[in-house]
Amino acid sequence: MDEAKLHFLTKEFIPLLKELPADAKGKWGKMSAQQMVEHVSGFFKVSTQKLKIPLVTPIEHLPKFKEFLLSDKEFRENTKAPGNIVPEEPVPTRKASMNEAGEELQNEIDHFVAFFTDNPGTKTTHPVFGNLDYDEWVLLHYKHVTHHLRQFGIH
């Protein structure tokens, strides 16, 4: 377990978002800051099976994706999720404010930790990376959130 990455996700990530106005635009991509926060919440829901998206990666390609996940490589700017997992146009915001979106995200992060604490050894399916255990999800969530922080000039 990478304790530093887990600490970042659980303690440092949300405070960094408080700097962002809801309508802030990133250096790339089409999402506003609030749309990004709600998008990240959705992927925490995928990791705890609250939201199920089927695998889109061909089985024979999973080792290549796992190699990327376990590496120190970052997602590139404008990385597009395969298989139309993320719509081309941003989804309208669901929450009334950036603050509400941030609270939901914090709740999903807390639920993520509790889910895997209560279900040790469990693997859940990411639509691109396949079945991931807790440690792998921590790595993926870290890569994902730091990608979006870079997008908005924070990290």
Explain how this protein is built.
By secondary structure, the chain is mostly helical. The chain has one domain (3-17, 31-76, 94-151). The chain has five helices and two strands; from the N terminus they run H-H-H-H-E-E-H. The chain has helices at residues 3-17, 33-47, 62-70, 98-118, 134-151, and strands at 124-126, 130-132. It has a two-stranded antiparallel ribbon. Strand 1 (124-126) and strand 2 form a beta hairpin. It is globular and about 40 Å long.
| Number of self-contained structural domains | 1
Give the C-alpha Rg.
15 Å
Which structural class do you get from the secondary structure elements?
A: mainly alpha
Helix content: 40-55%
Inertia-based shape = globular
The first-to-last residue Cα distance is 22 Å
Largest sheet: 2 strands, antiparallel
Strands, total number: 2
Q: Identify the strand order in the major beta sheet.
A: 1-2
Give the helix tally: 5
Keywords:
155 residues; mainly alpha; 5 helices; 50% helix; 4% strand; globular
Write the layout of secondary structure elements.
Layout: H1 3-17, H2 33-47, H3 62-70, H4 98-118, E1 124-126, E2 130-132, H5 134-151
Antiparallel strand pairs: 1-2
Helix pairs in contact: 1-4, 1-5, 2-4, 2-5
In brief, what are we looking at here?
Helix content is 50%, strand content 4%. The protein is mainly α and 155 residues long.
